[in-house]
Design brief:
Elements: E1 22-25, E2 37-42, E3 48-52, E4 57-60, E5 65-68, E6 83-86, E7 92-97, E8 103-109, E9 114-117, E10 131-134, E11 140-143, E12 148-152, E13 155-159, E14 171-177, E15 180-185, E16 190-193, E17 198-201, E18 213-218, E19 224-228, E20 233-237, E21 242-246, E22 256-261, E23 267-271, E24 276-280, E25 283-287, E26 299-304, E27 310-314, E28 317-321, E29 335-336, E30 342-343, E31 354-361, E32 365-372, E33 378-387, E34 390-397, E35 404-411, E36 416-423
Length: 424
Protein backbone atom coordinates (compact mmCIF):
# COMPACT_ATOMS: atom_id res chain seq x y z
CA UNK A 1 0.00 0.00 0.00
CA UNK A 2 1.20 3.48 -0.73
CA UNK A 3 3.11 5.13 2.03
CA UNK A 4 2.49 8.81 2.59
CA UNK A 5 4.88 11.11 4.34
CA UNK A 6 3.49 14.53 5.13
CA UNK A 7 5.91 17.26 5.95
CA UNK A 8 3.73 20.33 6.01
CA UNK A 9 5.15 23.72 6.80
CA UNK A 10 4.54 27.31 5.85
CA UNK A 11 7.13 29.03 3.71
CA UNK A 12 6.03 32.38 2.44
CA UNK A 13 6.59 33.20 -1.22
CA UNK A 14 9.98 34.72 -2.01
CA UNK A 15 9.29 36.44 -5.31
CA UNK A 16 10.58 39.86 -6.28
CA UNK A 17 9.78 42.59 -3.79
CA UNK A 18 8.26 44.87 -6.39
CA UNK A 19 5.49 42.34 -7.11
CA UNK A 20 4.69 41.48 -3.50
CA UNK A 21 1.93 43.22 -1.61
CA UNK A 22 2.71 41.88 1.88
CA UNK A 23 5.67 41.16 4.13
CA UNK A 24 5.35 39.87 7.68
CA UNK A 25 7.96 40.39 10.41
CA UNK A 26 8.02 38.43 13.65
CA UNK A 27 10.68 37.37 16.14
CA UNK A 28 11.25 34.11 14.32
CA UNK A 29 12.06 35.64 10.93
CA UNK A 30 13.60 39.04 11.67
CA UNK A 31 15.57 41.07 14.19
CA UNK A 32 12.47 41.98 16.17
CA UNK A 33 13.04 41.30 19.89
CA UNK A 34 9.31 41.26 20.68
CA UNK A 35 6.16 40.63 18.64
CA UNK A 36 4.00 43.07 20.63
CA UNK A 37 4.41 46.35 18.71
CA UNK A 38 3.23 49.54 20.39
CA UNK A 39 4.49 52.22 18.02
CA UNK A 40 6.07 52.60 14.57
CA UNK A 41 7.36 55.85 13.09
CA UNK A 42 9.53 56.81 10.10
CA UNK A 43 12.31 59.42 10.20
CA UNK A 44 13.36 61.84 7.44
CA UNK A 45 15.91 59.31 6.15
CA UNK A 46 13.10 56.76 5.70
CA UNK A 47 14.43 54.66 8.58
CA UNK A 48 11.80 52.64 10.45
CA UNK A 49 11.74 53.04 14.26
CA UNK A 50 9.74 50.58 16.32
CA UNK A 51 8.67 50.68 19.96
CA UNK A 52 7.97 47.29 21.50
CA UNK A 53 6.20 46.12 24.63
CA UNK A 54 9.07 44.16 26.18
CA UNK A 55 11.98 44.44 23.76
CA UNK A 56 13.02 48.09 23.70
CA UNK A 57 13.60 50.40 20.73
CA UNK A 58 14.27 48.96 17.27
CA UNK A 59 15.84 50.59 14.21
CA UNK A 60 15.32 48.96 10.82
CA UNK A 61 17.02 50.40 7.73
CA UNK A 62 15.43 47.78 5.43
CA UNK A 63 18.36 45.43 5.70
CA UNK A 64 19.72 45.62 9.27
CA UNK A 65 17.96 45.47 12.62
CA UNK A 66 19.40 47.32 15.64
CA UNK A 67 17.94 47.01 19.13
CA UNK A 68 18.35 49.16 22.26
CA UNK A 69 16.97 47.60 25.43
CA UNK A 70 17.70 47.60 29.16
CA UNK A 71 21.06 45.86 28.59
CA UNK A 72 22.65 48.42 26.27
CA UNK A 73 20.76 51.66 27.00
CA UNK A 74 19.28 53.56 29.96
CA UNK A 75 15.78 52.30 29.11
CA UNK A 76 13.84 50.91 32.06
CA UNK A 77 10.51 49.11 32.57
CA UNK A 78 11.57 46.03 30.59
CA UNK A 79 12.26 48.28 27.62
CA UNK A 80 8.59 49.11 27.08
CA UNK A 81 8.22 51.94 24.54
CA UNK A 82 4.70 53.33 24.81
CA UNK A 83 5.02 56.14 22.31
CA UNK A 84 7.61 57.30 19.83
CA UNK A 85 7.99 60.41 17.68
CA UNK A 86 10.79 61.94 15.59
CA UNK A 87 11.57 65.68 15.58
CA UNK A 88 12.91 67.84 12.72
CA UNK A 89 16.48 66.96 13.67
CA UNK A 90 15.77 63.22 13.63
CA UNK A 91 15.94 62.96 17.40
CA UNK A 92 13.73 60.19 18.72
CA UNK A 93 11.47 61.07 21.65
CA UNK A 94 9.99 58.10 23.44
CA UNK A 95 7.95 57.44 26.53
CA UNK A 96 9.06 54.57 28.76
CA UNK A 97 6.68 53.27 31.40
CA UNK A 98 4.94 50.16 32.60
CA UNK A 99 2.44 51.80 34.95
CA UNK A 100 2.23 54.70 37.37
CA UNK A 101 4.64 53.02 39.79
CA UNK A 102 7.11 51.73 37.21
CA UNK A 103 7.84 54.60 34.86
CA UNK A 104 10.89 56.45 33.56
CA UNK A 105 9.40 59.48 31.84
CA UNK A 106 10.71 60.61 28.45
CA UNK A 107 13.92 59.76 26.62
CA UNK A 108 15.45 61.82 23.83
CA UNK A 109 17.77 59.74 21.62
CA UNK A 110 19.89 61.10 18.77
CA UNK A 111 21.16 57.70 17.67
CA UNK A 112 24.12 57.77 20.07
CA UNK A 113 23.30 59.81 23.16
CA UNK A 114 20.37 59.45 25.53
CA UNK A 115 18.77 62.20 27.61
CA UNK A 116 16.16 61.34 30.21
CA UNK A 117 13.46 63.73 31.45
CA UNK A 118 11.55 62.65 34.54
CA UNK A 119 9.81 64.22 37.54
CA UNK A 120 13.05 64.20 39.55
CA UNK A 121 15.38 65.93 37.08
CA UNK A 122 13.05 68.13 35.01
CA UNK A 123 9.75 69.95 34.98
CA UNK A 124 7.83 66.92 33.73
CA UNK A 125 4.63 66.71 35.79
CA UNK A 126 4.22 62.91 35.57
CA UNK A 127 6.43 60.07 34.37
CA UNK A 128 3.57 58.35 32.56
CA UNK A 129 3.56 60.00 29.11
CA UNK A 130 0.84 58.84 26.74
CA UNK A 131 1.48 60.97 23.66
CA UNK A 132 3.35 63.96 22.27
CA UNK A 133 3.45 66.19 19.19
CA UNK A 134 5.60 69.05 17.93
CA UNK A 135 4.70 72.64 17.16
CA UNK A 136 6.41 74.49 14.29
CA UNK A 137 8.42 76.56 16.78
CA UNK A 138 10.01 73.39 18.16
CA UNK A 139 7.85 73.10 21.27
CA UNK A 140 6.90 69.59 22.27
CA UNK A 141 3.43 69.13 23.73
CA UNK A 142 3.14 66.22 26.12
CA UNK A 143 -0.02 64.37 27.14
CA UNK A 144 -0.13 62.68 30.55
CA UNK A 145 -2.91 61.47 32.87
CA UNK A 146 -2.23 64.44 35.19
CA UNK A 147 -1.61 67.45 32.95
CA UNK A 148 -0.80 68.84 29.53
CA UNK A 149 2.85 69.93 29.36
CA UNK A 150 4.81 72.17 27.01
CA UNK A 151 8.60 71.92 26.72
CA UNK A 152 10.71 74.36 24.69
CA UNK A 153 14.23 75.77 25.15
CA UNK A 154 14.59 73.90 28.46
CA UNK A 155 11.48 75.61 29.83
CA UNK A 156 8.45 73.71 31.09
CA UNK A 157 4.83 74.84 31.33
CA UNK A 158 1.90 72.82 32.64
CA UNK A 159 -1.86 73.04 32.27
CA UNK A 160 -4.20 71.26 34.65
CA UNK A 161 -7.55 71.89 36.33
CA UNK A 162 -5.92 74.04 39.02
CA UNK A 163 -4.25 76.62 36.78
CA UNK A 164 -6.40 76.62 33.63
CA UNK A 165 -9.91 76.01 32.34
CA UNK A 166 -8.95 72.64 30.88
CA UNK A 167 -11.96 70.39 31.51
CA UNK A 168 -9.91 67.22 32.05
CA UNK A 169 -6.24 66.80 32.83
CA UNK A 170 -6.31 63.11 31.87
CA UNK A 171 -5.00 63.64 28.33
CA UNK A 172 -4.74 60.60 26.09
CA UNK A 173 -3.52 62.13 22.81
CA UNK A 174 -2.41 65.51 21.47
CA UNK A 175 -2.35 66.72 17.86
CA UNK A 176 -0.96 70.12 16.85
CA UNK A 177 -2.55 72.19 14.07
CA UNK A 178 -0.62 75.43 13.67
CA UNK A 179 -0.94 77.10 17.06
CA UNK A 180 -4.03 75.03 17.96
CA UNK A 181 -3.70 71.95 20.12
CA UNK A 182 -6.36 69.24 19.95
CA UNK A 183 -6.50 67.00 23.00
CA UNK A 184 -8.31 63.72 23.48
CA UNK A 185 -9.44 62.53 26.87
CA UNK A 186 -10.67 59.23 28.19
CA UNK A 187 -14.22 59.99 29.22
CA UNK A 188 -14.45 63.76 28.71
CA UNK A 189 -14.36 64.15 24.93
CA UNK A 190 -12.09 66.65 23.14
CA UNK A 191 -10.40 69.91 24.12
CA UNK A 192 -9.27 72.61 21.68
CA UNK A 193 -6.53 74.87 23.06
CA UNK A 194 -5.40 78.12 21.40
CA UNK A 195 -2.65 78.88 23.94
CA UNK A 196 -5.13 80.86 26.03
CA UNK A 197 -8.47 79.09 26.31
CA UNK A 198 -9.66 75.50 26.28
CA UNK A 199 -12.90 74.73 24.43
CA UNK A 200 -14.61 71.44 25.19
CA UNK A 201 -16.41 69.15 22.73
CA UNK A 202 -18.27 66.16 24.10
CA UNK A 203 -21.42 64.17 23.36
CA UNK A 204 -23.61 66.85 24.94
CA UNK A 205 -22.55 69.77 22.73
CA UNK A 206 -21.14 68.21 19.54
CA UNK A 207 -21.45 65.34 17.11
CA UNK A 208 -18.98 63.15 18.97
CA UNK A 209 -20.17 59.55 19.12
CA UNK A 210 -18.23 58.80 22.31
CA UNK A 211 -16.44 60.71 25.06
CA UNK A 212 -13.68 58.10 25.08
CA UNK A 213 -11.21 59.30 22.46
CA UNK A 214 -8.15 57.19 21.80
CA UNK A 215 -6.40 59.08 19.00
CA UNK A 216 -6.53 62.24 16.87
CA UNK A 217 -5.30 62.71 13.28
CA UNK A 218 -5.60 65.88 11.17
CA UNK A 219 -5.71 65.54 7.39
CA UNK A 220 -4.35 68.00 4.79
CA UNK A 221 -7.78 69.64 4.48
CA UNK A 222 -7.91 70.40 8.20
CA UNK A 223 -10.47 67.72 9.02
CA UNK A 224 -10.03 66.15 12.45
CA UNK A 225 -10.43 62.40 12.71
CA UNK A 226 -11.13 61.01 16.17
CA UNK A 227 -10.68 57.33 16.84
CA UNK A 228 -12.99 56.42 19.70
CA UNK A 229 -13.53 53.49 22.00
CA UNK A 230 -17.10 52.28 21.55
CA UNK A 231 -18.19 54.95 19.08
CA UNK A 232 -16.27 54.17 15.90
CA UNK A 233 -14.56 56.91 13.88
CA UNK A 234 -15.64 60.57 14.01
CA UNK A 235 -14.77 63.25 11.44
CA UNK A 236 -15.02 66.94 12.32
CA UNK A 237 -14.79 69.82 9.85
CA UNK A 238 -14.08 72.72 12.18
CA UNK A 239 -14.61 75.25 9.38
CA UNK A 240 -18.22 74.21 8.78
CA UNK A 241 -18.81 72.67 12.21
CA UNK A 242 -19.97 69.50 10.48
CA UNK A 243 -19.64 66.07 12.10
CA UNK A 244 -19.66 62.67 10.41
CA UNK A 245 -19.75 59.40 12.36
CA UNK A 246 -18.60 56.07 10.94
CA UNK A 247 -20.23 53.35 12.95
CA UNK A 248 -21.94 50.13 11.87
CA UNK A 249 -21.38 51.09 8.23
CA UNK A 250 -18.80 48.46 7.34
CA UNK A 251 -16.10 49.73 9.69
CA UNK A 252 -14.43 46.64 11.19
CA UNK A 253 -14.96 47.68 14.80
CA UNK A 254 -16.20 50.65 16.88
CA UNK A 255 -13.05 50.35 19.01
CA UNK A 256 -10.41 52.36 17.14
CA UNK A 257 -6.83 52.29 18.41
CA UNK A 258 -4.98 54.19 15.65
CA UNK A 259 -5.75 56.24 12.53
CA UNK A 260 -3.63 57.11 9.48
CA UNK A 261 -4.33 59.21 6.36
CA UNK A 262 -2.42 57.99 3.30
CA UNK A 263 -1.24 59.88 0.22
CA UNK A 264 -4.52 59.18 -1.54
CA UNK A 265 -6.46 60.70 1.38
CA UNK A 266 -7.81 57.31 2.39
CA UNK A 267 -8.39 56.80 6.11
CA UNK A 268 -6.90 53.68 7.70
CA UNK A 269 -8.01 52.49 11.12
CA UNK A 270 -6.40 49.91 13.37
CA UNK A 271 -8.84 48.30 15.74
CA UNK A 272 -8.84 46.38 18.99
CA UNK A 273 -9.36 42.71 18.07
CA UNK A 274 -10.88 43.27 14.60
CA UNK A 275 -7.75 43.92 12.49
CA UNK A 276 -7.56 46.76 9.92
CA UNK A 277 -9.91 48.82 7.75
CA UNK A 278 -9.56 51.54 5.12
CA UNK A 279 -12.22 54.07 4.16
CA UNK A 280 -12.29 54.58 0.39
CA UNK A 281 -14.60 56.50 -1.95
CA UNK A 282 -16.81 53.41 -2.20
CA UNK A 283 -16.85 52.48 1.48
CA UNK A 284 -14.85 50.36 3.87
CA UNK A 285 -12.40 47.66 2.87
CA UNK A 286 -11.50 45.33 5.74
CA UNK A 287 -8.27 43.34 6.07
CA UNK A 288 -8.41 40.41 8.47
CA UNK A 289 -7.27 36.80 8.81
CA UNK A 290 -9.40 35.67 5.86
CA UNK A 291 -7.85 37.93 3.21
CA UNK A 292 -4.51 39.09 4.58
CA UNK A 293 -1.50 37.84 6.57
CA UNK A 294 -1.79 40.53 9.27
CA UNK A 295 -0.29 38.64 12.22
CA UNK A 296 -2.42 40.04 15.05
CA UNK A 297 -6.06 41.11 15.35
CA UNK A 298 -5.19 44.04 17.62
CA UNK A 299 -3.63 46.74 15.41
CA UNK A 300 -1.92 49.28 17.65
CA UNK A 301 0.03 51.51 15.28
CA UNK A 302 0.20 52.53 11.62
CA UNK A 303 2.95 54.34 9.72
CA UNK A 304 3.63 55.23 6.09
CA UNK A 305 7.13 55.37 4.61
CA UNK A 306 8.20 57.53 1.67
CA UNK A 307 7.72 54.63 -0.78
CA UNK A 308 4.07 54.33 0.17
CA UNK A 309 4.54 51.12 2.14
CA UNK A 310 2.08 50.86 5.03
CA UNK A 311 3.62 49.54 8.28
CA UNK A 312 1.07 47.81 10.50
CA UNK A 313 2.10 47.13 14.10
CA UNK A 314 0.06 44.52 15.92
CA UNK A 315 0.04 42.60 19.16
CA UNK A 316 1.74 39.71 17.35
CA UNK A 317 4.16 41.21 14.83
CA UNK A 318 4.40 43.63 11.91
CA UNK A 319 2.85 43.49 8.46
CA UNK A 320 4.00 45.73 5.60
CA UNK A 321 1.50 46.37 2.80
CA UNK A 322 1.62 48.11 -0.56
CA UNK A 323 -1.18 47.43 -3.02
CA UNK A 324 1.10 48.16 -5.99
CA UNK A 325 4.03 46.13 -4.64
CA UNK A 326 6.36 46.69 -1.71
CA UNK A 327 9.33 48.89 -2.54
CA UNK A 328 12.77 49.30 -1.01
CA UNK A 329 13.00 46.36 1.40
CA UNK A 330 15.72 43.72 1.36
CA UNK A 331 14.11 40.43 0.29
CA UNK A 332 16.08 38.47 2.86
CA UNK A 333 14.12 40.15 5.65
CA UNK A 334 10.67 38.93 6.55
CA UNK A 335 8.21 36.56 4.95
CA UNK A 336 6.87 37.34 1.51
CA UNK A 337 3.25 36.43 1.15
CA UNK A 338 1.59 34.87 -1.92
CA UNK A 339 -0.95 36.92 -3.82
CA UNK A 340 -2.36 33.98 -5.82
CA UNK A 341 -4.00 30.61 -5.29
CA UNK A 342 -1.49 28.38 -7.09
CA UNK A 343 -0.51 24.74 -7.45
CA UNK A 344 3.15 24.26 -8.39
CA UNK A 345 4.56 21.55 -10.58
CA UNK A 346 5.89 18.73 -8.44
CA UNK A 347 9.63 18.22 -8.24
CA UNK A 348 11.42 16.20 -9.21
CA UNK A 349 9.25 15.18 -12.14
CA UNK A 350 9.51 12.47 -13.39
CA UNK A 351 10.28 10.92 -10.01
CA UNK A 352 11.04 7.56 -8.52
CA UNK A 353 9.41 6.89 -5.16
CA UNK A 354 8.94 10.43 -3.78
CA UNK A 355 8.32 13.98 -4.97
CA UNK A 356 7.52 17.38 -3.47
CA UNK A 357 4.12 19.00 -4.09
CA UNK A 358 3.84 22.67 -3.18
CA UNK A 359 0.88 25.05 -3.26
CA UNK A 360 0.12 28.64 -2.20
CA UNK A 361 -2.98 30.12 -0.57
CA UNK A 362 -3.73 33.84 -0.89
CA UNK A 363 -6.61 33.86 1.59
CA UNK A 364 -7.75 31.69 4.46
CA UNK A 365 -9.46 28.74 2.80
CA UNK A 366 -10.66 25.18 3.20
CA UNK A 367 -8.68 23.07 0.74
CA UNK A 368 -8.30 19.48 -0.40
CA UNK A 369 -5.30 18.01 -2.22
CA UNK A 370 -5.87 14.61 -3.86
CA UNK A 371 -4.08 12.25 -6.27
CA UNK A 372 -5.97 10.55 -9.13
CA UNK A 373 -5.14 7.95 -11.75
CA UNK A 374 -5.72 8.44 -15.50
CA UNK A 375 -9.28 7.09 -15.12
CA UNK A 376 -10.13 9.79 -12.58
CA UNK A 377 -10.24 7.50 -9.56
CA UNK A 378 -9.07 9.12 -6.33
CA UNK A 379 -6.13 7.17 -4.99
CA UNK A 380 -5.06 9.25 -2.03
CA UNK A 381 -6.07 12.32 -0.08
CA UNK A 382 -2.82 14.16 0.58
CA UNK A 383 -4.09 17.11 2.53
CA UNK A 384 -7.29 18.83 3.63
CA UNK A 385 -8.50 21.42 6.09
CA UNK A 386 -8.58 25.17 6.72
CA UNK A 387 -5.29 26.79 5.73
CA UNK A 388 -4.04 30.29 6.49
CA UNK A 389 -2.33 32.46 3.88
CA UNK A 390 1.05 31.08 2.89
CA UNK A 391 2.78 28.31 1.00
CA UNK A 392 2.60 24.66 1.95
CA UNK A 393 4.83 21.79 0.95
CA UNK A 394 4.11 18.06 1.04
CA UNK A 395 6.43 15.16 0.34
CA UNK A 396 4.54 12.40 -1.48
CA UNK A 397 5.87 8.85 -1.41
CA UNK A 398 4.58 6.76 -4.30
CA UNK A 399 6.01 3.46 -3.10
CA UNK A 400 3.70 0.62 -4.15
CA UNK A 401 2.15 2.45 -7.09
CA UNK A 402 2.89 1.25 -10.62
CA UNK A 403 4.87 3.50 -12.92
CA UNK A 404 2.79 5.84 -15.03
CA UNK A 405 0.96 9.13 -15.26
CA UNK A 406 -1.04 10.47 -12.30
CA UNK A 407 -2.81 13.74 -11.57
CA UNK A 408 -2.89 15.82 -8.39
CA UNK A 409 -5.66 18.33 -7.79
CA UNK A 410 -5.91 21.27 -5.38
CA UNK A 411 -9.45 22.42 -4.65
CA UNK A 412 -10.68 25.40 -2.69
CA UNK A 413 -14.02 27.16 -2.31
CA UNK A 414 -14.22 28.42 -5.88
CA UNK A 415 -10.94 27.31 -7.44
CA UNK A 416 -9.56 24.01 -8.76
CA UNK A 417 -6.07 23.46 -10.14
CA UNK A 418 -4.69 20.19 -11.51
CA UNK A 419 -1.17 19.13 -12.48
CA UNK A 420 0.26 15.96 -14.00
CA UNK A 421 3.06 13.91 -12.45
CA UNK A 422 5.02 10.96 -13.82
CA UNK A 423 6.15 8.09 -11.62
CA UNK A 424 8.99 5.99 -13.09
Amino acid sequence: MKKLILLIFIIFFAGEAVSQQWIVYKKNNSGLPDNNILKITVDSNNIIWIGTSMGGLVRFDRSTWTVWDTTNSPLKCNGRINNLIVDRYNNKWLSNFMDGYNSAGIFKFDGVNWVNYNVNNSGLCYNVVLSFDFENNGAIWIATPKCLSKFINNNWEHFDTLNSNIHSQNIFDVAVEGHIKWLSTYGRGISKFNDTTFVMYDMSNSGLSSNYIRTIVIDRFGNKWFGTYQGGLDKFNSQTNQWTVYYDDGIPSPFIDCVLIDKKDRVWVGTANQYLGVLTDTGWVVFNETNSPIPGDYVKTLALDRYGNLWIGTIDGIAVYNETGIIGINESNGNYVPTDFYLYQNYPNPFNSSSIIKYSINKKSYITLNVFDVLGRKLQELDKGIKNIGEYQIRFDGTGLPSGIYFYRLSSDNTIETKKLLLV
